[in-house]
Design a protein that fits this description.
- The protein is an alpha+beta fold and 271 residues long.
- It has two domains: 142 residues, 3-Layer(aba) Sandwich (PSTPO5379-like); 102 residues, PSTPO5379-like fold, CATH 3.30.2040.
- Helix content is 17%, strand content 24%.
- The chain contains five helices and eleven strands, in the order αβαββββαββαββαββ.
- The strands form two sheets. Strands 1, 2, 3, 4, 5, 10 and 11 form a seven-stranded antiparallel β-sheet that branches. The chain has a four-stranded antiparallel β-sheet with strand order 6-7-9-8.
- A hairpin with a 2-residue loop joins β3 and β4.
- The protein is globular and about 50 Å long.
- The N and C termini lie far apart (40 Å).
């Protein structure tokens, strides 16, 4: 059983030979030694957001991703029932190698799970979508702090619908100094497969950012006078689309708990 979507447009990426740091961290996640966010883990390796859904909805979801590529840059799509991302992390298991999964049933989020072995089905297709966590190492090397002042929030900006999929754009907000904000924009623009440059800098109200109900990152305090809010499109966006679609089953990474691959981030940078 195969899915009838044209995957020839996926970027050509090469996995690092194993053993490597990405594989080591995944092993620790599988053993429940690492249980927290993927931020700061396997720095320098591509991280991906996960969107796992029944084959019956895969074509519409693929079209949704194509229409909203800034938020949903697809890097690999598995065949139904396959649990190994052969292009990005050979030997990995998509059911166990994220520290935390968000499970939605008919659009309602259930209790997060540390693995999804018990809910896995033979008709499930996994989309691996580039994550902005990937460029954290490049930020750190440029002197831009990544360990604090960042949240995942909902906006009122609409995405372009495809079939049953639609909903608001989800963004990652970071607070940076104006100098760091400009530098971060220039660096992230070189990572088009990981959301690219910011979609907005400045007043959160201009994009309807809901700072009262962040999806990840804890309560948002008052913005310090010396900082500016910077917003990137976020791979949590498909979760909002799945909630709106009320699929019978949809599984994603929990926010900030991305899947770590064997692909070097430096190989994704454009000139």
């Amino acid at each position: 059983m195969r899915i009838a979507v044209n995957l020839t447009g996926l970027p050509q990426l090469s996995a690092e030979p194993q053993p490597n740091e990405g594989q080591r961290v995944r092993s620790l996640i599988r053993q429940a030694t690492i249980t927290g966010t993927s931020r700061g883990q396997a720095m320098g390796f591509l991280q991906c957001n996960l969107a796992i859904l029944p084959k019956a909805h895969a074509e519409d979801f693929w079209l949704y991703c194509q229409r909203n590529a800034r938020a949903c840059p697809v890097l690999e799509v598995t065949q139904p029932g396959h649990t190994e991302p052969q292009r990005l992390a050979p030997g990995a298991d998509l059911r166990t190698d994220c520290a935390r999964y968000a499970v939605f049933i008919h659009g309602q989020r259930q209790a997060d799970q540390t693995d999804i072995v018990d809910v896995w089905r033979d008709d499930l297709v996994t989309f691996l979508i580039g994550s902005g966590i990937t460029f954290d190492q490049a930020f750190e090397q440029a002197g831009i702090p990544t360990h604090a002042d960042r949240w995942v929030v909902t906006t009122t900006l609409p995405t372009q619908a495809a079939g049953i999929f639609g909903g608001p754009l989800i963004v990652t907000m970071r607070w940076l100094t104006p100098e760091h904000a400009q530098l971060a924009s220039e660096i992230s623009a070189r990572f088009p497969l990981n959301h690219g440059a910011p979609i907005h800098m400045g007043d959160p109200a201009e994009i309807g950012a809901d700072l009262d109900h962040p999806l990840f990152g804890g309560p948002v305090p008052a913005l310090p006078k010396e900082k500016v809010a910077v917003f990137w499109a976020c791979g949590v966006t498909p979760q909002a689309a799945a909630e709106a679609a009320a699929l019978p089953l949809f599984i994603a990474h929990a926010p900030a708990h991305s899947f770590i691959t064997d692909v070097r981030a430096a190989g994704l940078m454009t000139a």
